[in-house]
Amino acid sequence: MAKDNTTPLIIGAAALGILFLAKGKVGVKGGYDIDLTDDSPKEKRKGTRDWEDITGITLHQVGVSGMNPKAWRKVTAHLGVHTDGTVYLIHPLPAYLWHGHKLNRDTVGIEVAGNFVGDLSKPESYWKAGGGPDSLNSAQITGLRRAIAYIVNEVKRHGGKIENVFAHRQASSGRTVDPGAEIWQAGGIWAQKKYGLTEGGCDYYRGTGKTIPGWWDEKCGPLPGTVQTVAEEEVVFSSEAEGAEFPG
Predict the structure, then answer these.
(1) Where are the domains of the chain?
(2) Which listed residue, of 120, 126, 141, 243, carries a Cα 20 to 30 Å from 185's Cα?
(3) Tens digits of per-residue pLDDT, 160-186?
């Protein structure tokens, strides 16, 4: 059974459905609603990091529309935000996971359920094999921001400091629309303003990654010698089921 991190609440029938599927109690303390750390595959945890070595957050989209809540325990990320805004703690924050290529070693990964477009002005700029496209709703925005706040505060509580917020695309040429414009604007840019975090600069990337594009953040683009619009950039998104896990 998943651990109960919170004081139990009186909840309605819809919430009870989620409660049953997740095998955990629903609450509001701690920044997440359901703790799956006892149920998630331990083999995904490649090691344990010191709190002071955790300095960033990486934002992801699942890339699949209509995700079943039962699937969260199998997702390679530390936290997940479902379509109804429920926040799942999937793995402990110090766990070293292969979630973000060259962003693995020093960041905490947040996955958001759905398949989202890369450029809001280009409706076809999404991964077609994932269904959708979806739009980020208000409950997800609230859940995403709660997850970010939880990470910032929990790392601080253990003597560390979150300084960066990254997009998965910054570490992989295979994730050009990850997490997409909506998630980046609602989460990444919000975190920069709220907590003074940085994406490393508009020219920052690791490994085979790509920089934050101007169609996600107007301060970032376009840069000389870079792709001018998403129409000129191939939409690439490899699902976890197709082998998206890599060390880094």
Answers:
(1) 42-242
(2) 243
(3) 999 999 999 999 988 889 999 999 999
